[in-house]
Amino acid sequence: MMESEQSKPVVEQKPDNSSPTDPFAQSLHQRIRQQEILAELGVLALQGATFTELLDQTARLTAEGLGADFCKVLEYQPHDNRLLVRAGVGWDDGVVGKATVGADLESPAGYALHTGKPVISNHLENEKRFRTSELLVQHGIRRAMNVILQGDGKPFGVLEVDSRSEGEFAERDIAFLQGAANILGMAIEQQQAQRKLTEALERHEILLKEVNHRVKNSLQVVSSMLSLQAKAVGDPELSARLAEASMRITTVGRAYDRLAYKADYEMMELNGYLREVSKDIMAAVAPSELIFEAIGEISFSADRAILVALIINELASNASKYAYDGKTGGAIWAKVEPATDRGILITVRDEGIGMPAGFDPAKSKGLGTRLVMALAKQLDAEFVAQPAGIGTSVTLRVPLERVANR
Questions:
Q1: pLDDT at 164
Q2: Last residue of one domain, picked from the residues 195, 217, 232
Q3: What pTM does this model have?
Q4: Other CB atoms closer than 10 Å to residue 251's CB: what's the count?
Q5: Cβ distance 11 to 117 under 8 Å?
Q6: Which of 17, 66, 209, 376 could form a disulfide with 381 if both were Cys (CB 3.0 to 4.6 A apart)?
Q7: Cα–Cα distances in Å, from 117 out to 11, 86, 350, 365?
Q8: CA 307 from centre of chain
Q9: What is the pLDDT of residues 27-78, one digit of tens each?
Q10: What is the crossing angle of helices 51-65 and 24-46, to 10°?
Q11: Is 325 in contact with 352 (CB distance < 8 Å)?
Q12: Residue 240 domain-assigned?
């Protein structure tokens, strides 16, 4: 197969006074070392070296592989069509990071950049095809070789090797130089893709925070409106129902308030959230007293944590309404603790009059009990309601994760 025009290097004709070739053994040793260097660069790229380290090591190892004094990584600056010396070896202080060369077609580096063709210039003092940059003249460079350095979907720049010696770069040297450029180019592409992904995730996190914040504010407005309506409706029973609805919305809003300031939007620390919710429940069940106890720290999915909080809210509200019938209120205990089987135990109890004989929560027509049953089902929780020695004790065993195929 014929070599494509795109990849065929642009090489000046060898003058009559060319230097003799190196001995075979020396040439063989150099080719072996070049393969070792390409392997080193590949490992360096895979190990996730920093961008600066990748550039510096590529320049250093490429110069070594070609027995050259100088090497530089040139980054294309499209706004002024020039190439910035981004990294390099052998150059005077003040060159790397500051010096630029032209990126037009009259520049060998620019020609390699825009055409994709490698360029070899073995006798810069006699070069007629391209101009020689002032940077090379100042450093006494006699020969140079340039190849394109690809980036993320577009050229990053050029990899150039330079030497003061009278030897010659041959076409076979292009394979090594382009190999080094390709490895660096893949690493650049990977790091740029990673940066874009990180930026996208950061934008996503900002959007999620904003969404959670707005949801929390919206729920707070709805809860406040229901509270105001409950006070103004003039019907005690309807007023109580509106107040309960307001409390449920506040419970959900508390979760979004915590999520708005967290980096992890799927998980939350359950007991910290429930402690906040318990303060709202305390105010809602007055004159009864809620005594809340949370043991340890429990990492729990946010959507399931909301269901747990709603269950505690409903059980505590039911106890405040029915447990101390005819009295001005009493104590209600709520406890959350880790279970031994990768779950949690939720217990709400009181010392009131207890449940009626034969009470079946699954057949109850009360809204609060039906809500607890429905929420427990969503949590795949084992629901146990039974009389305690005094009053009523309700316990749920909730798995940390949703049970599959339910």
A1: 93
A2: 195
A3: 0.50
A4: 27
A5: no
A6: 376
A7: 10, 21, 84, 82
A8: 28
A9: 788 888 888 888 888 888 777 778 888 899 999 999 999 999 999 999 999 9
A10: 170
A11: yes
A12: no
Residue 224 forms part of a structural domain: no
Convert 287-355 into a string of H (helix), E (strand) and C (coil).
CCEEEEEECCCCEEEHHHHHHHHHHHHHHHHHHHHHCCCCCCCCEEEEEEEECCCCEEEEEEEECCCCC
Rounded Cα distance, 247 and 280, in Å: 8
- Name the least confident of 3-12, 114-123, 233-242, 396-405: 3-12
Name the domain boundary from 147, 171, 195: 195
Measured in whole angstroms, the distance separating CA 310 from the mean position of its chain's CA atoms is 32
The count of domains in the chain is 2
Q: For position 28, which CATH number holds?
A: 3.30.450.40
What whole-number distance in Å separates Cα of residue 229 and Cα of residue 225? 6
Phi, psi of 200, deg, nearest 5:
-65, -40
Tell whether the model's pLDDT for residue 5 goes beyond 60: no
Q: Are residues 73 and 152 in the same domain?
A: yes
CA angle 187, 190, 196 (to 5 degrees): 140
In a domain, 151, yes or no: yes
Cα Rg of the chain, angstroms: 37
d(CA 173, CA 119): 11
Residues 288 and 392 grouped into a single domain: yes
Read off the pLDDT of residues 74-91 as tens digits, 9 standing for 90 and up. Answer: 999 999 999 999 999 999
Q: What range does the domain containing 402 cover? A: 266-406
237 within a domain of the structure (yes/no): no
> Is the same domain home to 171 and 281?
no
Q: How far apart are CA 107 and CA 123, in angstroms?
A: 15
CATH code for position 401? 3.30.565.10
Q: Parallel, antiparallel, or unpaired: how do β-strands 119-121 and 10-11 relate?
A: parallel
> Are both 160 and 289 inside the same structural domain?
no
